[in-house]
Amino acid sequence: MTTPPILLPTPSPSSSSSHPTSTTSSKPFHVLIIGGSITGLTLAHCLTAAGISYTILEKHRNLLAPLGGVIGVAPTGARILDQLGLFENLNAIAQGIRILCTGFPDGSGISQAWVREFEGRYGYGFSIVTSQQLLEVLYTGLGERAKETVHGGAEVTKICHEGDVVKVHTRAGNVYTGDLVVGADGLHSIARSEILKIVGRNAIAETSNLTADYRVHVGLSTSVPGLSTSEQIIRSYDGFALFVFCGKDGEVGWFATEKLDQRYTYPERPGYTEEDAMAYCESMSDVNVWGDIKFGAVWKARTSFSHALVDEHVFSTWNYGRVVYVGDSVVKISPNSGLGASVGMECAAALTNKLHSLLSSKSPISKPSTAAIETLLDEYTNSQHRRARMIGFASYGAIRLHSRDGWLNALIGGFVLRSERLAVFWTTVIMRGGIKLDFLPVPRRGSEKQRWNMRSVILLVSVVVVLLAVVF
């Protein structure tokens, strides 16, 4: 299904926002968000709910550029969307996952229903939606205010601290002034580049920890006979893995992760072209997806296709001065975990919680000092970094188990991917630490159904430790 484009307004230089440099001002605290991404738009909703003004600067005119495929929304992300009044709109287009089908190189396969447990536990299950659909829900949910607050064609070129404000310059000649800049513009974040120039060598050296052992091929296809809605298919092979999902309208989302011949360290990149990626996918035409379905049928029905390296790393430097990163600007994880979108939503909620708490304690005419903002951002970074590292660890393991990377992962994966209880345990650990908006009520479905039994968690941890000790 083709999603109509959303063309963002492009302001003239005279319409850029401006705020005085004094910390005491009648103008409200203003946040400049770089990137109209899922994370950036979620942050806009969170700030709106908190009564904090913002402007989104998106370099593209078309918010729904035909890139990407399907993404997962975990219960933690769904709860935040529900608090923001967006869950019903998401639920109308998203496809819930009820059955997880996992296949192995020897032709064996299992179907598991453990994913159903989480809707009963938390009030929300796991669902899939195309990135364009979710962006549309988030953008249209902003209503008429989006025409004033979301600016297209606003490619950021420079960020400058000036006293107690920060100024953002765009290629079009606009200069925006705000009290905080949030980078939600992904790996090649201009906010990160500007911070690295200021912070120095230690932060710059950290980019050497950003590595890629895999590349991912992502696509959308029209309906393929034999694929059922509500099922997620994972096909595990030596050196690669296939993921296939069927949406509500029959549209098929898929991606394939491929182990590279070597590890690449940022900014080093292999010389893969679009033709190379297409040739690889065509070479998998006879690979089994599930039952009698071959990947060739999915590939021939494609309506969009892209490819990228799978960069992996959780950065340590998240903020400096009045600039901070959120989402995949600092948390680069594999698509295998299905948590990328929800991690970004949690970052948006966590940052807004801190801002709401700080600004609620201030006089309406008094703005926080730079020192207060830096303390707030340090607290945000410290709290979210621990959770991000845990999710990064789980994601790192998932892509290697699914692609049977080496004999050890092949051995462990054969056991782990077949164990429903282990899957439930690890997913529960991740879901349990999920962030919500502290200043908004939690909808009934997201509060009464959450039952956490720590004794069960401790027991499961003990069992896993004993099993690992026996195996190794």
From TrEMBL:
<feature type="transmembrane region" description="Helical">
    <location>
        <begin position="452"/>
        <end position="471"/>
    </location>
</feature>
<feature type="compositionally biased region" description="Low complexity">
    <location>
        <begin position="13"/>
        <end position="25"/>
    </location>
</feature>
<feature type="transmembrane region" description="Helical">
    <location>
        <begin position="29"/>
        <end position="57"/>
    </location>
</feature>
<keyword id="KW-0285">Flavoprotein</keyword>
<comment type="similarity">
    <text>Belongs to the paxM FAD-dependent monooxygenase family.</text>
</comment>
<keyword id="KW-0274">FAD</keyword>
<keyword id="KW-1133">Transmembrane helix</keyword>
<feature type="domain" description="FAD-binding">
    <location>
        <begin position="30"/>
        <end position="389"/>
    </location>
</feature>
<dbReference type="InterPro" id="IPR036188">
    <property type="entry name" value="FAD/NAD-bd_sf"/>
</dbReference>
<dbReference type="GO" id="GO:0004497">
    <property type="term" value="F:monooxygenase activity"/>
</dbReference>
<feature type="compositionally biased region" description="Pro residues">
    <location>
        <begin position="1"/>
        <end position="12"/>
    </location>
</feature>
<dbReference type="InterPro" id="IPR002938">
    <property type="entry name" value="FAD-bd"/>
</dbReference>
<dbReference type="InterPro" id="IPR050562">
    <property type="entry name" value="FAD_mOase_fung"/>
</dbReference>
<dbReference type="Pfam" id="PF01494">
    <property type="entry name" value="FAD_binding_3"/>
</dbReference>
<feature type="region of interest" description="Disordered">
    <location>
        <begin position="1"/>
        <end position="25"/>
    </location>
</feature>
<keyword id="KW-0560">Oxidoreductase</keyword>
<keyword id="KW-0472">Membrane</keyword>
<keyword id="KW-0812">Transmembrane</keyword>
<protein>
    <recommendedName>
        <fullName>FAD-binding domain-containing protein</fullName>
    </recommendedName>
</protein>
<dbReference type="GO" id="GO:0071949">
    <property type="term" value="F:FAD binding"/>
</dbReference>
